[in-house]
Fold:
Amino acid sequence: MLKLKNSQVNNSWWGSIDKIIFIPVLVLLFIGVIAISSASQKLGTVNLKSNLMWNKHLVFCLLSLFTIFIISKLSTKQIIILSFSLFSLSIILCFIALIVSQETKGATRWLNLTYFSIQPSELAKPTFIILSSLLFVRYKIKEDFSLIVNLFCLSLISLILIIQPDFGMFILICVVWIIQLFTINIKSKILFPIISFILGVFLLCFFILDHVRFRIMNYLFSDIGDNYQIMKSIDSFKSGGLFGQGIGEGVISKKLPDSHSDFVYALISEELGIIVAIIILLLYVIPYVRIHYICQRSSNLFTITSLTGLSNIFLFQTIINISSTLNIIPTKGMTLPFISYGGSSLISSALLIGFILVLIRDGINE
Structure:
């Protein structure tokens, strides 16, 4: 009877997922709900729709949990098919957004629908990693045209991100793609020309794209542009101290226009303190370490390449957001996974975690 019960637990959804990955995500979502609730109260003085913002965030949090649940019940083959479909859809929607959408904060990343807007490029992040992993593994085995197809897909999404513009996501995807190149131990005579070309594109963007050059120069020479948000962000960290001012009691973060999105980490640090801010960092690092522990014990190259790419997308996005908040790097306009306001970002992160849970489960059961 005991063996039967244990078998039933292992065959259940909860028994099949990796809790070291999933539980930190639950905690991050909970922290995000608290943070956005506080941020929406701050916006309430100037924005009558502040309650609507929090309600939307709560709905998308529930949708992201539902997405993780549904995706994690799929097989590896099914997430490959799903990734191809969603990546193709995201590319089409990105082109539509470039044509029909109006600029928002100098970018055409969003498709405005009746009650909400979506950022199609967010869907491309986790789905492209799965597709590129499949193509990398095929090339490693057969050394055929699949590397050219992979480069074409990378070039296509990169072109869209540069035109939008979303230089931060462009860098993120390219860097993770290069890491995947190293993961499959591709020949150096192919590796170095590809890396040199990508670095050349980075350099070209600096000289051609005014907004990229401005952000970098503004970071290096702070007297060039408006650094209001960065200054208030750093002041928020100082104001919070070890234990924070209390939920909803932040003073400086009230003056941060993007305290609900790009600068939510500054709001959390002021209201909940540096100790909670460090705990949040650990909640991102723990799944990353767990994934790489599993990769070291796996012999499946597709699983290793996919998990490496997905985990690095997850961690690097976190590092970019927090580093921008602390003025360690130029601001990138990138959300903090599972905490920042934004339905597209939440669903994208949920897809990513769902894919990870599938790959780990199937990898263990091989």
Observations:
- Residues 172 and 313 are 7 Å apart (CA to CA).
- Residues 1-9 have pLDDT under 50 and may be disordered.
